[in-house]
Amino acid sequence: MPPGLPPGPDGPRQYLAAAFGRFPDIQVTVEDIIAECDKVVCRNTWRATDRESQQKIEFGGIVIWRIVNGKLAERWAYLQAPHPVH
């Protein structure tokens, strides 16, 4: 999550509200999902149109979650920089 967001569930809620405000048609495609022991890995592709410029963008990412007692204990993520789609 970007710095400056509140801790707990309010941080992701604010982040998603801002993302959907700027990119109302955002879509994610799950390319791969792998679970082993206490970790889940997801490789995905995001596509959207910037509301301000009408430019279509795309970026990929990988997220790893570590689950303990049925709850999210840690999260790591890598996202490519968004790039225009022609």
Task: Report on the architecture of this protein.
The chain has 86 residues and is an alpha+beta fold. The protein has a domain at 25-84: Roll (Nuclear Transport Factor 2, Chain: A). The chain is built from 1 helix and 5 strands, in the order αβββββ. It has one helix at 10-22, and strands spanning 27-36, 39-49, 56-68, 71-79, 83-84. Strands 1, 2, 3, 4 and 5 form a 5-stranded antiparallel sheet that branches. The longest helix is centred in the N-terminal third of the chain and has 13 residues, at 10-22.
Number of helices: 1
CATH C-level class of the domain at 25-84 is: Alpha Beta
N- to C-terminal separation? 28 Å
What's the CATH architecture name of the domain at 25-84? Roll
Percent of residues in beta strands: over 45%
Low-confidence stretches are none
The CATH topology label of the domain at 25-84 is: Nuclear Transport Factor 2, Chain: A
Secondary-structure-derived class? alpha+beta
Give the number of DSSP strands: 5
Helix content: 10-25%
Query: How confident overall, as mean pLDDT?
Result: 90
How would the global form be characterised? Answer: globular
Compute the gyration radius: what is it?
15 Å
Order of helices and strands: HEEEEE
Let me know the largest β-sheet. 5 strands, antiparallel
